[in-house]
Amino acid sequence: MFDVYTKHDFTMAQLIEHRGVINKIEDHLIEVLIVQQSACGECQAKGTCMAADKQEKLIEVEKVDGDFKVGETVVLCGHQSIGLQAVLLAFILPFVLILTALLVLQLFALNESVSGGIAVSVLIPYYVVLSFFNEKLKSKFRFEIRREAEI
């Protein structure tokens, strides 16, 4: 129902676009429901297959000029670079931290299960520090909202 695709705008910067439906409108925020599907989401056998992955996400966007209504289909646009930065912060850096901690702890010849537990616990301070930058990250990872007809 909702597709995710990339297009080029006039400045040739790549955009990530998500179609969604406005779920809620507050004073300065619009909450948009998007549905992300795995690659098999478009498969003909998805009705009988248990592997079809479908996730609903709520994205908050700053309200701009325009008269948006709850239930209206809109498109959220963001630069591809913010997606890459989000992957870096959420997946790549934590993986590197765990792997580095595991390798360093193995040098001290600790028990593998103890090393593994300590390596995973390294993520706790990482995500605590990341949470201190929550507002800065929110301002950096912004989507713009457009009506579907404006595209």
Concise synopsis of the structure shown:
The chain is of the alpha+beta class and 151 residues long.
Topology:
Blueprint: E1 4-8, E2 14-25, E3 29-37, E4 54-62, E5 73-79, H1 80-107, H2 112-121, H3 123-132, H4 134-140, E6 144-147
Antiparallel strand pairs: 1-2, 2-3, 2-5, 3-4, 5-6
Descriptive overview:
This protein has one domain (4-150). Helices cover 36% and strands 30% of the residues. The protein has 4 helices and 6 strands, in the order βββββααααβ. Strands 1, 2, 3, 4, 5 and 6 form a 6-stranded antiparallel β-sheet that branches. β1 and β2 form a beta hairpin. α1 (80-107) packs antiparallel against α2. The two termini are 17 Å apart.
